[in-house]
Amino acid sequence: MAAIKTIAKQCGAGLVTGAVNGLFGGGGGMVVVPLLQACGRPPLVAHATAILIILPVCMASAVVYLFGGWFDAELFLAVGLGVLAGGAAGAKLLGAITPAAATLVFAAVMFAAGVRMML
Questions:
Q1: Per residue in 65-85, pLDDT tens?
Q2: DSSP for 79-109?
Q3: Other beta carbons within 10 Å of 68
Q4: Cβ–Cβ under 8 Å, residues 45 and 34
Q5: What are the pLDDT digits (tens) for 6-34?
Q6: I need a labelling partner for 89 at 20 to 30 A (CA). Which of 29, 48, 60, 96 fits?
Q7: pTM, rounded to two decimals
Q8: CA dihedral (81, 82, 83, 88) positive or negative
Q9: Where are the domains of the chain?
Q10: Cα 53 to Cα 69: distance, rounded to the nearest angstrom
Q11: In 3-state terms, what secondary structure has residue 69?
Q12: d(CA 8, CA 1)
């Protein structure tokens, strides 16, 4: 029975993550990390899993945006190159820092993004 509860909580985390990503065109990773940690996963596992989860979520959202006419190919290519390089560097860095450092950096980025959005 405990396994079913765990799977249900994880599916719920996925549902919330997908909804946030679809609504905002991204940002599901900011939601899924704390949700996975609340499901009992260690911080580094939560961060790494979030990265892997976001790919299919973003692909599903991208299809909707593409067919909705909200797509700029030039912008996609320019930003996409930077995201690829930054993603590779960030993934390497995640393996080199402690779980506490990953949590602290994650919280700082979320806080900075929230402040920036309010201004």
A1: 889 988 888 998 999 899 899
A2: HHHHHHHHHHHHHHHHTTS-HHHHHHHHHHH
A3: 8
A4: no
A5: 889 888 888 888 788 777 766 777 888 88
A6: 60
A7: 0.62
A8: positive
A9: 2-118
A10: 25
A11: coil
A12: 11
